[in-house]
Specification:
Blueprint (H helix, E strand, L loop, with lengths): L3 E8 L2 E8 L3 E7 L2 E7 L2 E3 L3 E6 L2 E10 L2 E10 L10 H12 L1 H20 L4 H7 E8 L9 E8 L7 E6 L2 E6 L6
Parallel strand pairs: 8-9
Antiparallel strand pairs: 1-2, 3-4, 5-6, 6-7, 7-8, 9-10, 10-11, 11-12
Length: about 180
């Protein structure tokens, strides 16, 4: 059962928010045109570390260097349960294998993004690609033991601002590059 209570108190045009919850949740509050986002509760996973919940995603800040640029991104661990109880050992293994093979995987992702940009937009220069394709997150896709290890790189793209670019990696090999839908 979910218990969630928000109490908004106004005191001379100042607002206080009191939140009580027995559940980990990500909260966004909009008051007088100002937006606040924060996390309530976390999950501490033995492999992923401290994660916070937002709409079936367990998130934490993460950094990846690609295209000779260090990107501060979100590590997204996708689950079907809000409490994170279904983070699988296969997802943990996916992340461990990514960490162990990070340089090779990122080199291949970079190569395939360059190829994709050249084939679809006739852009070949790395500096041009860096300005038009920006890494936003690394998603650890929900898979079970015995299934392939899957992760997705999600990029914003000036070429396609609505759909962006996604790179699907299965068992440490880049298998597809296309719109973000391939990893969502």
């Amino acid at each position: 059962m979910l218990y969630f209570e928000v109490l908004l108190i106004q005191n001379k045009n100042r607002y206080s928010v009191v939140i009580k919850s027995y559940f980990c949740i990500y909260v966004e509050i909009l008051i007088n045109g100002y937006k606040w986002s924060f996390k309530v509760g976390t999950l501490n996973d033995k492999v992923f570390g401290e994660l916070y919940n937002k709409e079936l995603l367990w998130l934490r800040p993460y950094e990846i260097e690609i295209f000779h640029t260090l990107y501060p991104i979100e590590l997204n661990v996708y689950t079907y349960e809000d409490d994170g109880s279904d983070i699988t050992q296969n997802q943990r293994d996916t992340f461990i294998n990514f960490e162990l093979n990070k340089k090779n995987i990122l080199d291949n992702v970079e190569k395939e993004i360059k190829k994709y940009c050249y084939e679809n937009f006739q852009i070949a220069e790395l500096e041009s690609i860096k300005k038009m394709v920006i890494l936003k997150c690394l998603k650890i896709i929900h898979t079970e033991i015995g299934e392939d290890r899957q992760l997705g790189f999600i990029f914003d793209s000036i070429f396609d601002p609505e759909l962006g670019i996604g790179v699907l990696v299965i068992n440490e090999q880049v298998v597809a590059v296309g719109v973000q839908d391939i990893v969502l």
